[in-house]
Amino acid sequence: MTDKLRSNWRADGTLRHIGTPRWLVDDMLQTLMAAFEDAGHQIYAVGGCVRDTMMDRHVHDVDLSTDALPEDTIAIVESLKFKRSSWKAIPTGIEHGTITAVDPVGAGPYEITTFRTDVETDGRHATVAFSRNIEDDATRRDFTINAFYANRQGEIRDLVGGSADLAARRIRFIGDPVDRIKEDYLRILRFFRFTASHGNQDDGVDADGLAACALLADGLTGISRERIGAEVTRIISNRDAAPIVGTMEQSGVLGRILPGASVLTLARLIDLEESYPIEGPMVAPNDMATRLASLGCADVADRLRLSSAAAKKIALVLREAGSLTPAHALAYRHDYWPAVHCLLLRWASLQQPFDETVLADLERGASAKFPVQAADLMPEYTGKALGDRLQFLKETWIASQFEMSKSALLERP
């Protein structure tokens, strides 16, 4: 934490002020929040934008929370103008109190949600009642670090004791973890995701939260595969996902959503990823599909409702990881990075070290151009015979590591 951010804490260890992040002082957001205040309403930036600002992280979205009812929110937003253009209010989730405000210059959009309290929950969906009380809204959220509220001046309200947890990078459920999970069983996976992305795993996972996740893991059977897939892909995309996936396995959660899955190959895969020689602006060869393939769940793509592209990538790396296809041929057939992923999974599966000597072969294979064209074989070969001959010569050329010339290939019996 920078000294500038540290100054925003009170002496008693609670958050005092968010400072002046660019997103908060933006003219459009200030105009929007001021309009609610002028209409006699409370309005706060809430959740991730406050949390990530205090953790000195990039803020992607700004969500707002207000005591204004949805119809009042719509009226306030639609009353705003910038030059000759009007703001738009889109009822994206009006039954749950959410209105999306779209400003004329594209600074947003901003999701504005009325303070809520849960009336009834079934582990997947909640029936809510709107509230004028910010405490009601805070106590229905999932984790203490996600329940910070900042007003237009940047002053923070922490109603659930999240300040100490944020300082310690501790992911802790608000109130009783069992109660919070029973409201929405997807919070089990969110607990692991936030622990991986925002927690301090060196201090271990929150014991009460972990115990509740293990106890209630069966509740994930009622959650759609799409929602589970969205959380799992985010978990496994963390730079060092192995410790948290290992904790998921030990708690029984991993096996509940991906039967047969294990962290062992994933841990070795991540070590190999870290061995790749990064230079300049290059990024590490982390690949979500390859990491999922390493878990060993036979139908992982279907269980997580992955895209067809991700499913194809998983099938590719699993097939080639179990083959003897050399590096240069992998890169020629699949391109450079897919070939890297195939090799990383192969090495991880076989407990082999990173082999830096193959990088030159990968580069050569990815840039190689087959020198023979169909016209070179006509009219002697036509139809199926032409295709078979082309394929034979291509395989011969690949086996030579691209060294055979066009003339040598054409003379090949």
Automatic annotation (TrEMBL):
Keywords: Magnesium, Metal-binding, Nucleotide-binding, Nucleotidyltransferase, RNA-binding, Transferase, tRNA processing. InterPro entries: Bact_CCA-adding_enz_type3_sf, NT_sf, PolA_pol_head_dom, PolyA_RNA-bd. Residues 43-172 form the Poly A polymerase head domain. Residues 210-261 form the tRNA nucleotidyltransferase/poly(A) polymerase RNA and SrmB- binding domain. Its cofactor is Mg(2+). The keyword Metal-binding applies. Belongs to the tRNA nucleotidyltransferase/poly(A) polymerase family. This is CCA tRNA nucleotidyltransferase. It comes from Octadecabacter dasysiphoniae.
